[in-house]
Specification:
Oligomer: single chain
Distance between the termini: 34 Å
Helix content: 40-55%
Shape: rod-shaped
Strand order of the largest sheet: 5-4-1-6-7
Number of helices: 3
Number of strands: 7
Largest sheet: 5 strands, antiparallel
């Protein structure tokens, strides 16, 4: 009696690579599927990494340019900001929109609204951010925050490339399976009656 044992590693490797080996049962669609699987793996591994790196660098460079184009300016607070209201859920808003006045780089005096800490009195000096034209804008991201955002963007791009590639490969392999089933059905309609006559 033949003793059953664990499947050897080289046997498992041969089973995975059967489409690449010449054998009488292999069809043209099997070779096509083998190339599709190889292309999927290459695009997911290499394309995902390249897309992730490109997205991360693009995001980091964009945020760096944004950071270089924004400047902190001292402004005069023109109105009092509310105090922080503490509720059962905890502290409320710590910053409020308030009217401020500042001097732009071209020497003109401007007014606008900016986010200011709570509990500040009118006439107090506050820090605001302006762009190169001297208009109010939001505070830019820090270097650390930019690195985090770049990491998120790179990961998302890599996952997107991998997901789209995998989905496209699965659809293509499904269509190959359907075509193989149709071929087997046609061939069985030709061969099946002959076997039925021989066995009857």
């Amino acid at each position: 009696m033949r003793r059953c044992g664990p499947v050897r590693k080289d046997t498992r490797t041969k089973q995975r690579l059967w489409r690449w080996r010449s054998n009488p049962l292999r069809r043209h669609d099997d070779i096509v599927e083998a190339w599709i699987v190889l292309a999927m793996g290459t695009v997911i591994a290499l394309g995902g990494v390249l897309a992730g790196l490109a997205a991360a660098h693009a995001t980091y460079d964009f945020l760096a340019q944004q950071r270089a184009g924004r400047h902190d300016v001292q402004a005069v607070l023109l109105e009092r900001t509310p105090e922080v209201v503490v509720t059962e859920a905890g502290a409320g808003n710590a910053r409020f929109r308030a009217k401020v006045r500042w001097t732009a780089a071209d020497g003109t005096t401007r007014t606008g609204t900016a986010m200011v800490d709570a509990g500040r009195k009118a006439g107090a000096m506050v820090q605001v951010w302006t762009d190169n034209q001297g208009n109010l804008t939001t505070e830019p991201t820090t270097v650390a925050e930019a690195s985090v955002f770049a990491g998120y963007a790179g990961t998302a791009a890599a996952l997107a490339v991998g997901g789209v590639t995998y989905a496209a490969g699965r659809v293509t392999r499904w269509r190959l399976d359907q075509r193989r089933y149709d071929q087997w059905a046609r061939e069985w309609r030709l061969v099946g009656p002959q076997w039925a006559r021989k066995t009857s």
